[in-house]
From TrEMBL:
Domain Metallo-beta-lactamase: from-to ranges: 526-721
UniProt organism field: Vescimonas coprocola
UniProt-listed GO biological process terms: establishment of competence for transformation
Protein name, per record: Metallo-beta-lactamase domain-containing protein
Protein location: Cell membrane
Swiss-Prot/TrEMBL keywords: Cell membrane, Membrane, Transmembrane, Transmembrane helix
Gene Ontology terms: cellular component: plasma membrane
SUPFAM superfamilies: Metallo-hydrolase/oxidoreductase
Entries under Pfam families matching the protein: Competence (PF03772), Lactamase_B (PF00753)
SMART domains membership: Lactamase_B
Length: 759
């Protein structure tokens, strides 16, 4: 009996239940019930088989312990921190990592003094030079990291961060323990990044290698990150088993074969150092603990067991922070590895059995393909529902991508690691090795880009029928697994799943394209993105969000591709504020665009220049709207009006009017009432059917003068989590008085208007 696995998995089940269902009094009642039933089993020595009784007691006592432990952790670690939230107060703590630049300054993670809890401090850019180990203190506005503007957020608590501290006034920084050996792993990773930048002057290659060796993807371009994600190989940047196995293999080459105990001990120490160096992410903690179990098994004269080592790793992580259970990275990492443990060998045997010949070269190729395909498919068994839930994506190309990319990525990682280490000894030699890494990185990115250009490389759950197909497919293969052993049933199940998938995709494309014209307000939170399409031609007007947890570009691209639209006739930008533009970089990286329409105004944020660089790189025509421009769109016409106002960017934006017959949709960006009055005075706007409400329902927009002229029948407000009070009651009252029916993306989600026959 796998005793450790039974205890660890039961403990994990209890923690997941407590965290995902919400910590409360129910935990103590549930813990008491588990304890009571466990004690009952303890007394049933004569009426139950001993093995079954023992397993039952282990499960119940572990569940009881998990529920009590999570409640104690919440009461002793999280609650004292959240009790101080919502008010101004002093803070002090130890810096855990170098600050990260933000739009308004820097963000630095600290461990609060006298507590096991962490917090993130947002301060001015002058504190960018803080080092791990320094002590900082000051006044700050405390914000609960798990509850932001009435929204439940798990991203912070899953990393042990329970408060966001917005500094008010100067901070005091002291030397603390900075420079001590305690912070050597952190200093090592910074030195590694600097050496990578020195070896590969090409910024794209350096960013790729940094992501590969340390898991830090912040330096990668939107385009490179997008193609790796869409190809289903972004997991290469999660420091995990590949990295750990290589480190152990490298040490094995350097140490004598006979000194097995020394090699195992040194390998364990290096793995622990590397684990801390790259940030103790769930994937690297899991991989290192599993590798340590593998190294220790021969020394203890035991066989290594994948499920036991996997469950032990999960136990260690959850003991350190039960709230890590809510983390997406932990769920994906352990789900993928569980699939490998449960199914990889069986799938590999199945694929190898398809070739019964005796030719060695052919068998070698079959074994290579079988190993890669079985690993990819096994890892996907439990991760597909998670990627569907968290990322809205189902990658069909992932098995092929892993077959063609992962081996080369493995070699690039190993060569990059050796080259970086060599760089600390002699930089010229490292740069010579770096050319090999450069070639492998170019191949990986080229292949990923080529695979993402294949039609249907990924499906998106913006297709509302796809979730039902997924349930059907899992039910189909589960039924196969629990019935007889005949293999033919899996072929039948695969054929049925493929046929129904084609029907699901085709149905959504057909229904999405009905009508003479369609206008969709995509739910991007506090921002705006409007899709206008007729047939297979589409235009996107603005794409951005001020909510950091919303990827506006991905949401828009997912929606378009789920409708079978992979090329845009045009993208129009009303103005350069981030909540209307920061999703465009992802959108332009994923979809082909013919024309980019921009207002001919300067901006202080550098958005215009960045868009121009992307347009030049992707061969997109740029048109500055200095006079009225008309863009044909199937049976509709998009008219773009140049800026009519003066002042800030809101008042210097473009206006878009899309017309199909007598049906009109008006988009005014973020212009205020004074500019709206200039607009209706300068242009002869028609009665419209749909108004994309200006400035997210601000009281300064949707003026009486505009509404009296255009008389909208429907008003759509693109709005989300914000501190501005949008949409305001004043704006909604004016819209209601004008006779408009009001819809809001924060309540209805994506809002689609379909025009039939231009009426």
């Amino acid at each position: 009996m796998r005793t450790l696995a039974t205890i660890a998995l039961s403990f994990a089940a209890g923690v997941f239940a407590a965290v995902l269902l919400g910590v409360g009094v129910w935990q103590l009642w549930a813990a008491g019930a588990c304890l009571l039933v466990g004690l009952v089993l303890l007394g049933l020595k004569r009426t139950m088989p001993a093995r079954l009784r023992l397993r039952g007691m282990l499960i119940l006592f572990a569940l009881c312990g998990a529920l009590v432990y999570t409640a104690l952790f919440q009461a002793l670690v999280q609650a004292p921190v959240t009790a101080r939230c919502g008010q101004m107060g002093e803070f002090s703590g130890t810096v855990l990592s170098r600050p990260v630049e933000t739009e308004w300054g820097v963000r630095v993670t600290i461990r609060l003094s006298g507590s096991a809890a962490k917090a993130e401090v947002y301060a001015d850019a002058e504190y960018a030079g803080l080092e791990p180990g320094q002590q900082i203190s000051g006044m700050a506005q405390w914000q609960d990291a798990a509850r932001i503007r009435e929204n439940d957020v798990t991203a912070f608590a899953s990393r042990g961060v329970f408060a966001l501290l917005y500094a008010r006034g100067p901070l005091t920084a002291e030397e603390g323990s900075a420079g001590s050996i305690r912070w050597l792993p952190q200093r090592a990773v910074y030195a590694l990044r600097e050496k990578i930048a020195a070896i590969w002057p090409d910024g794209d290659t350096a960013a790729f290698v940094t992501a590969e060796l340390t898991g830090d993807r912040s330096g990668m371009t939107e385009e490179d990150a997008a193609v790796m994600t869409q190809a289903g190989v972004a997991h290469l940047f999660a420091v995990s088993g590949l990295h750990c196995a290589f480190l152990v293999s490298l040490l094995g080459l350097l140490l004598p074969v006979r000194r097995r105990a020394l090699g195992a001990g040194l390998s364990m120490a290096v793995l622990l150092f590397y684990m801390v160096m790259v940030g103790l992410t769930p994937s690297v903690v899991r991989a290192c603990i599993m590798q340590i179990f593998l190294l220790a098994a021969p020394l203890l004269r035991r066989e290594s067991d994948g499920l036991t080592s996997l469950s032990a790793a999960l136990l260690v992580i959850l003991l350190a922070d039960p709230f890590a259970a809510a983390g997406v990275s932990l769920q994906l990492s352990f789900a993928a590895t569980l699939g490998l443990v449960c199914f990889s060998q069986r799938l590999s045997g199945f694929f190898k059995g398809l070739y019964r010949g005796k030719k060695r070269p052919v068998r070698a190729v079959v074994s290579f393909v079988a190993a890669n395909l079985s690993a990819s498919l096994a890892a996907m068994v439990f991760t597909i529902p998670l990627t569907a839930c968290y990322f809205n994506t189902f990658s069909l190309i992932a098995p092929l991508s892993n077959l063609l990319i992962v081996p080369a990525a493995g070699w690039s990682f190993m060569l990059a690691f050796v080259a970086t280490l060599a760089g600390f000894l002699w930089l010229p030699a490292a740069r010579v090795l770096g050319w090999g890494v450069w070639a492998l990185v170019r191949y990986v990115l080229w292949m990923a880009s080529a695979l993402t250009r294949l039609p249907g490389h990924a499906l998106y759950f913006s297709n509302r029928y796809l979730k039902y197909w997924l349930v059907y497919a899992y039910a189909l293969f589960t039924a196969c697994a629990i019935t007889g052993e005949r293999r033919r049933k899996y072929a039948v199940a695969a054929a049925l799943a493929a046929m129904t998938l084609l029907l699901t995709v085709g149905l959504n494309v057909r229904l999405s394209r009905c009508g003479e014209m369609n206008a969709m307000a995509v739910n991007v939170g506090q921002g705006q993105c409007t899709l206008l399409y007729a047939g297979d031609q589409a235009v996107v007007v603005d794409c951005g969000s001020s909510n950091s947890y919303v990827d506006a570009g991905s949401r828009a691209a997912d929606q378009l591709e789920s409708m079978g639209i992979h090329r845009l006739r045009a993208v129009a930008v009303t103005h350069y504020h981030a909540d209307h533009t920061n999703g465009l970089y992802q959108l332009l990286a994923r979809l082909e665009v013919q024309t980019l329409y921009l207002p001919d105004i300067e901006d202080e944020y550098g958005v215009r220049e960045r868009l121009l660089r992307l347009a030049e790189k992707n061969g997109i025509e740029v048109v500055y709207v200095r006079r009225t421009v008309e863009c044909p769109l199937g049976g509709a016409v998009l008219s773009l009006y140049p800026p009519v106002g003066e002042g800030d960017l809101n008042e210097q934006g473009l206006t878009a009017l899309c017309s199909a017959g007598d049906f009109d949709v008006l988009i005014t960006g973020d212009m205020a009432g004074s500019t709206e009055r200039k607009l209706v005075g300068q242009y002869d706007l028609p009665d419209i059917e749909v108004l994309m409400v200006g400035h997210h329902g601000s009281r300064y927009s949707s003026s009486q003068e505009l509404l009296q002229v255009v008389r909208p029948e429907t008003a759509i407000i693109s709005v989300g989590d914000n501190s501005y009070g949008h949409p305001t009651q004043e704006a909604m009252d004016r819209l209601s008085q004008a006779g408009a029916e009001i819809y809001r993306t924060d309540r209805q989600g994506n809002i689609l208007v379909t025009v039939h026959g231009g009426d």
